[in-house]
Every structure is written in C-alpha cells, then in structure tokens.
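Handout, page 2. Input:
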Amino acid sequence: MCHDPDSGPPIPPIAGASVSHDDLVLESADGNRFAAFAAGPDTPPRCGVVVLPDVRGLHHFYEEVALRLGEQGVAAVAIDYFGRTAGVAKRGEDFPVHGPRAETRSAGVQADVQRAGELRAPILALMGGADQAITADDVAAFETALAAAGVEHEVVTYDGAPHSFFDRKQEQFADVSADAWRRVLAFLDAHTPG
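Output:
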C-alpha cells in the first residue's frame, strides 16, 4: 500500500506490551547492504513475518506495523528494498521515491528478501475493491497463479475500499481496516505451530 507521510496503521498499540525493536543493516548473499527494522516480543516469538513496504521503502508506517505485530507475539522485519539504489540511511519525508523506485529491479528485490522464491507459505491477500493501482484483473491473475502453484491462499476484496485503505486517516474505512487486522491475526493463529 502507498501512504501519505503522516499515515499510520489503524491498529491501536497494546499498553504495557513487552516488545523489542531495532534498526538493522542486513546483507544479502551478493553483498548488498540494505536497511531493515525488526520488532518482536521479548519472549520467544510464535512465528515470523516479513513486511514489504510501499514505494517509499522503509517508512515509519511499516515500522509501526512491525511493532504492532511484535505486540501480538510475532517477530517482524520490515525491509527497505531501495537499499541497492538509495543506500541504508533513514529517509526524510522529502525522499525522492521516483528515482530509486525506477532503478529498483525485481531480481534485486528477490535477492534481498533472501530465498523468497523457495517459500511455500500460505498467503493472505487483503485487497481494496476500488483500488485503481491493483485492478480486479490483477487480483484474479494473482489468485490464479497461486492456485496453479498449489499455494494455500485466501484473497479478500473489500468492496469500495481504495488503494491504501488500511490507514487510521481513512476513517470511512475503519470497519474494513478492523476486519483486515482481525483476519491477519486469525491467519497467523491458524498457521502458527501449536
């Protein structure tokens, strides 16, 4: 999802939750260095999640998503796949996303996500029905590809919700945002080894 600089996930923090977090610089197999933000519970996590940001890369919105997951007992790491083109430094709101985004290539992203092509994990996709950037045809093609690959998946489309509906500023979509977060937590519960 793409968000405004002052956006935030519509997930209230859990008061008193014991969560650790850290800014990291990771290195891919080919030596590329890129920034990441890790968050997780202070006790052993129940599972792990990789958070892939929008076109701005590692923005505070995604750090906050990782923190909210950490409060739920999940180890989460948000990566900045613009590290190959924009370096590892923190970015201000004036970060020119179009330059690094234009230079970012799929092969580099795949190398930096570390063996993502080998994953066969279940997928939950939460889509806005009025998203003009990811069309209904795109969603259908994605779902068809997952089915053809034999990947367990659930695709949920929220009618009338735009791209980036999951934002506390989007008050008119508070109900679907709450449902999306409930679905994420239920998905993690269903796929976490007991």
